[in-house]
Structure formats: C-alpha cells, structure tokens
Amino acid sequence: MSNEYYEDVEHELYEYDDEGSEDNLCITDPETWQDIHSKELLDIWMSIVEYHETWYLPIQKTFNQLCEFVWKTEHQESPADTVLTPEVQAVQDLPFVKGRNWEEFFLS
C-alpha cells in the first residue's frame, strides 16, 4: 500500500484538531467508531436483551439502531441529561450510557 493512499484514507476517517495534532483525533466514520467501541456497545446491548428476556418483552430495536443512537448522541453539541430506563440501569457505569436520554431511544 502506498503512503499516499494511506494518508488519504486516514484523512477521511479522522478529523484533526486545529493544530493538526493526532492527540485529539475525532473519528468521523460511524463504522470505524463502532468497531473501536464494539465491546462497550455489545455490553449495553446484552443488558437490553437480558432485561427483555427476563420480563418476556419483545425487543423493538436492533443492535444497529443502538449503535446509531449512541453515535448520534455522542456527537451532539450539548449532551442530554441522562435519563435511564430499566434496560440500561444495570450498566449505567459503562461508557456511552451517561449523557443520553434512553427513553428517546426506546420510544422512537
């Protein structure tokens, strides 16, 4: 792989801070972001599945919808107040749980 191609791909996936520093990279590609945070996202998803199975409730959402919701709310200018639902209560200390209105996810 040539260095030029690598640099092009890198610039598409990442946004640099004002000084061009790599210390403050912001991933701009949802799929890459999901790959990096897959363990945390899967932990949240498994908590949702466990809750629904315990109470014999149908799951109205998909894992991809969860990832999309977390991605969108991760990149909001002003984070929402945390509103927990029973589905995510057990994992409230995981990354990506705080700063989100979970009612919005389950009711949309």
Brief overview:
The chain is mainly α and 108 residues long. The protein contains 6 helices and 2 strands, in the order H-E-E-H-H-H-H-H. The longest helix has 17 residues, at 38-54.
How would you characterize the overall build of this protein?
With 108 residues, the chain is mainly α. The protein is 53% helix and 4% strand. It has six helices and two strands, in the order H-E-E-H-H-H-H-H. The protein has helices at 3-13, 30-36, 38-54, 63-74, 86-89, 102-107, and strands at residues 14-15, 26-27. A two-stranded antiparallel sheet has the order 1-2. It starts with a helix and ends with a helix. Mean pLDDT is 80; it is low at 1-14.
What features would you highlight for this structure?
about 110 residues, disordered N terminus, about 5% strand, mainly alpha, two-stranded antiparallel sheet
SSE arrangement:
Blueprint: H1 3-13, E1 14-15, E2 26-27, H2 30-36, H3 38-54, H4 63-74, H5 86-89, H6 102-107
Order the strands across the largest sheet as they lie in space: 1-2
Describe the sheet with the most strands.
2 strands, antiparallel
- Average pLDDT, rounded to a whole number, is 80
Number of E strands = 2
Question: What's the helix-strand series?
Answer: HEEHHHHH
Q: Tally the helices.
A: 6
**What level of helicity do the residues show?**
40-55%
Q: Bin the strand percentage.
A: under 5%
